[in-house]
């Protein structure tokens, strides 16, 4: 047998894990004899030991053994050795690959318990509300029995309005079950809080991500965005669209389908100059126009109606490509959405500015430690390592896997393939064996469902619209005679149990109508059969008309004559042709995977700048939020910085101009005479301005009878300055990312340019924030409402 290096490495890791495993097991017999109270008392004891300096690692074995024994008593489930092994990996901050049905939910309870003992909070994060709630409800009795608190990190009612302090209560639990989206939005909102009391999320300490590849690889490209006020609207979208329609592909612009890029060529630039009456389109003053042209080109070439979006009631509604779900309310950023609206000649909607944003990649980097689990992490290992420095440990299954993954079946086109799939389903169904047919798009799923009904085969159609209902249906997909047609996302995370007797028929048969964007998703889908050592089978059907082939294949390969002229019967018989088609499909999937990896890398790079800046700003905010007084704060230095910049970067030509500046930034009431010689002595001028600032601030301070209100006032003025500066910056960086992508630079240059611009804009922002602080402090007007609360009117 050949020795596979990956396997060898995994074996080494497993051996090490097994040493810890032994220790956990060694406690089993004695813990079994403990009374309930004695077992429960362990939690207090562990906390005590941690307080006295013990490390989490040092109590791992014992604490896992406690949870294990408690689980037996409370849940009636005794964690298996493979589950203990997974649990060890999770505490290490790595990724555990555990197959479907192996019991990841229970596995996670041990590291969650251990890490929650610190009191810093431990999260279990999963893909949707339904799963979070299900796992929370199932595991909560265990934690509570052991004396820890657990919460569902949100109120599961659409549009629910949280009462004051309610969120904090949810987040204060020892163990919190939630979703990536909820945690992410709350993280952003938490950092927009303007009082210390308004904060509700503790610093992010430890989390375990369930279905980790789907959350941090597949979904990592979708940033979370909190939108603010509408951006000043450009009325160019329609004009530019009309211009774009006069251009010819490959002559005026180029479209690289594989890389998903499109750009203007020289003749196109020429035409733009003519059309808009310019001498040079690329002159700095026309950047907005260039940006709009690029957006319009992307809207035209890279987005297709009914595949990327639908038009519903005159609005563009995006489609989630993987699930086929409508992404209602979601908009593409930075004017792209508006360009598509112009393309389809529907009303142009408002382009909102971005208040705060974070990608999932970065969200999880905010945790001191995170780990993950999934059935298909191994295939993402390189990326987990490159992006997060995590290794993947493959945990053996409790029982050997019996599922048979059959070779792909090969067809020339979709028509013949779909017919063969139908035939196959009908055949298998005759034996009463359950079938799960998985398609890439909702359209296909609907097609098969209808066709099966037409053949008198009742079936359940799942197209990712109601996760809870889907979970119910898919949990029954292993019953006799059951036929389930689903898109790839539908019912994820739900275990398909076989009805007794079904195993004799070969278990669940999974049929997949095409290869997905990457082989990880293929494997997730295959893994729906054969849980916990059940029998089962999976098979993927392919053709040259598959999505990945159309999108990622080399067109010349596709136009190979033998293939084009081949009849479907010939394909059935010819091994050579079949192999050729298979190669094309495999190749296309590899290109697709590379494309995905590259995009994530780029996003990761882009995000680095924002992330560093975000952390600095949030830390700055927290410092101010935490302040109880400003006696030691160096206001003079602050003012000095601001005025130095003013004096050295702006020409101050007259006493009048200087007075204007003072009115606008320091005092409405300034009345003193200004000696003209100040204008020529920069250092004296700065000192003079600092003096004015101090006067103005002192006057402000005297207005407050109570020190408490003064502190509060200063805090608000500063936070307001930070937030408005940062919000502008986030919005700017977001747009920069959109713009710079379409500049025709090499990949490395794009990133370099972006970081460079991001850095210099950060410096500009810091000065701007300081300026606003000074201004807010001097010119804001404090007022009280009827209840005596301080109200501030900012200048
Ligand atoms: P996964 O997330 O790994 O696919 P689940 O956590 O959904 O698997 O668990 C699958 C099923 O196995 C659930 O019904 C769960 O209750 C059960 N299970 C898990 N661990 C054990 C155990 N140690 N003993 C008995 N049943 C278990
Ligand atoms: Mg699960």
UniProtKB/TrEMBL annotation:
- List residues of the Helicase ATP-binding domain: 85-249
The residues that the entry says bind ATP are 83, 101-105, 495
Q: Which Gene3D superfamilies match?
A: Helical scaffold and wing domains of SecA, P-loop containing nucleotide triphosphate hydrolases, SecA, preprotein cross-linking domain
Its record classes its membrane topology as: Peripheral membrane protein
The SecA family profile domain, residue ranges: 1-573
> What reaction does this catalyse?
ATP + H2O + cellular proteinSide 1 = ADP + phosphate + cellular proteinSide 2
**Top-level taxon:** Bacteria
Q: What is its EC number?
A: 7.4.2.8
Known InterPro entries for this protein? Helicase_ATP-bd, Helicase_C-like, P-loop_NTPase, SecA, SecA2, SecA_DEAD, SecA_motor_DEAD, SecA_preprotein_X-link_dom
Q: Could you confirm whether the keyword 4Fe-4S appears in this record?
A: no
Can you state the subunit structure given in the record? Monomer and homodimer. Part of the essential Sec protein translocation apparatus which comprises SecA, SecYEG and auxiliary proteins SecDF. Other proteins may also be involved.
General function of this protein: Part of the Sec protein translocase complex. Interacts with the SecYEG preprotein conducting channel. Has a central role in coupling the hydrolysis of ATP to the transfer of proteins into and across the cell membrane, serving as an ATP-driven molecular motor driving the stepwise translocation of polypeptide chains across the membrane.
Instruction: Provide the protein name.
Output: Protein translocase subunit SecA
Question: Source species, please?
Answer: Macrococcus armenti
The organism that produces this protein has a lineage beginning with:
Bacteria, Bacillati, Bacillota, Bacilli, Bacillales
């Amino acid at each position: 047998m050949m020795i596979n290096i990956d396997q060898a490495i995994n074996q080494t890791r497993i051996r090490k894990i097994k040493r810890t495993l032994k220790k956990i097991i060694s406690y089993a017999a004695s813990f079994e004899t403990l009374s309930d109270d004695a077992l429960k008392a362990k939690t207090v004891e562990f906390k005590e030991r941690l307080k006295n300096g013990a490390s989490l690692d040092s109590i791992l074995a014992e604490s896992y053994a406690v949870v294990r024994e408690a689980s037996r008593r409370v849940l009636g489930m005794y964690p298996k050795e493979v589950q203990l092994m997974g649990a060890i990996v999770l505490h290490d901050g790595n990724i555990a690959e555990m197959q479907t049905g192996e019991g990841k939910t229970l596995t996670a309870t041990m590291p969650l318990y251990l890490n929650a003992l610190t009191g810093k909070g431990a999260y279990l994060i999963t893909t949707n509300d339904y799963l979070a709630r299900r796992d929370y409800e199932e595991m909560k009795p265990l934690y509570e029995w052991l004396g820890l608190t657990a919460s569902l990190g949100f109120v599961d009612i659409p549009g629910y309005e949280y009462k004051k302090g309610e969120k904090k209560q949810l987040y204060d639990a020892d163990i919190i079950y939630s979703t990536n989206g909820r945690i992410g939005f709350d993280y952003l909102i938490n950092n927009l809080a303007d009082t210390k009391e308004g904060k509700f999320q503790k610093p992010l300490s430890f989390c375990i991500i369930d279905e980790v590849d789907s959350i941090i690889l597949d979904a990592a490209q979708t940033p979370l965005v909190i939108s603010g006020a509408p951006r000043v609207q450009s009325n160019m979208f329609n004009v530019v669209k009309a211009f774009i329609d006069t251009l010819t592909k490959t002559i005026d612009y180029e479209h690289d389908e594989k890389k998903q890029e499109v750009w203007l060529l020289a003749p196109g630039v020429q035409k733009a100059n003519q059309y808009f009456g310019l001498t040079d389109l690329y002159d700095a003053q026309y950047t907005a126009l260039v940006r709009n042209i690029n957006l319009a080109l992307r809207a035209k070439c890279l987005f297709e109606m009914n595949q990327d979006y639908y038009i519903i009631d005159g609005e563009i509604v995006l489609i989630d490509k993987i699930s086929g779900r409508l992404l209602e309310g979601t908009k593409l950023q930075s004017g792209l959405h508006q360009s598509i609206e112009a393309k389809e000649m529907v009303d142009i909607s408002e382009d909102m500015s971005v208040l705060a944003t974070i990608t999932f990649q970065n969200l999880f980097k905010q945790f001191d430690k995170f780990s993950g689990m999934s059935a298909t992490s191994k295939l993402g290992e390189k990326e987990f390592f490159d992006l997060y420095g995590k290794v993947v440990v493959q945990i053996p299954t409790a029982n050997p896997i019996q599922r048979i993954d059959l070779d792909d079946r090969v067809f020339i086109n979709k028509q013949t393939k779909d017919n063969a799939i139908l035939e196959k389903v009908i055949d298998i169904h005759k034996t009463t064996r359950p079938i799960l047919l998985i398609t890439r798009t909702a359209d296909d799923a609907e097609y098969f469902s209808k066709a099966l009904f037409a053949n008198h085969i009742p079936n359940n159609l799942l197209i990712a619209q109601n996760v809870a209902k889907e979970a119910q249906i898919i949990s029954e997909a292993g019953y006799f005679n059951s036929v389930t047609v689903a898109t790839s996302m539908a019912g994820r995370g739900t275990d398909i149990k076989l009805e007794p007797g079904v195993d004799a028929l070969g278990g669940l048969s999974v049929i997949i109508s095409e290869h997905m964007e990457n082989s990880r998703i293929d494997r997730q889908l295959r893994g729906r059969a054969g849980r916990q050592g059940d029998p089962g089978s999976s098979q993927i059907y392919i053709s040259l008309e598959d999505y990945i082939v159309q999108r990622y294949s080399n067109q010349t390969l596709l136009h190979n004559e033998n293939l084009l002229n081949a009849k479907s019967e010939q394909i059935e018989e010819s091994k050579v042709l079949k192999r050729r088609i298979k190669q094309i499909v495999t190749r296309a999937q590899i290109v697709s995977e590379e494309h995905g990896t590259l995009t994530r890398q780029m996003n990761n790079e882009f995000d680095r700048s924002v992330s560093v800046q975000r952390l600095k700003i949030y830390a700055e905010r927290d410092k101010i939020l935490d302040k109880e007084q400003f006696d030691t704060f160096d206001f003079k230095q602050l003012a000095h910085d601001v005025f130095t910049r003013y004096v050295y970067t702006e020409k101050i030509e007259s006493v009048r101009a200087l007075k204007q500046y003072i009115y606008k930034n320091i005092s409405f009431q300034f009345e003193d005479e200004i000696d003209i010689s100040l204008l020529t002595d920069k250092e004296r001028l700065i000192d003079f301005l600092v003096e004015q600032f101090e006067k103005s601030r002192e006057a402000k301070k005297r207005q407050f009878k109570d020190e408490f209100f003064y502190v509060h006032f200063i805090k608000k003025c500063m936070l307001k300055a930070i937030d408005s500066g940062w919000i502008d910056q986030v919005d700017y960086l977001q747009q920069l990312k959109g713009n710079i992508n379409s500049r025709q630079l090499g990949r490395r240059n794009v990133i370099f340019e972006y970081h460079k611009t991001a850095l210099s804009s950060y410096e500009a922002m810091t000065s701007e924030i300081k300026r606003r602080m000074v201004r807010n402090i001097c010119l804001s007007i404090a007022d009280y409402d009827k209840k005596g609360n301080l109200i501030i009117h900012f200048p």
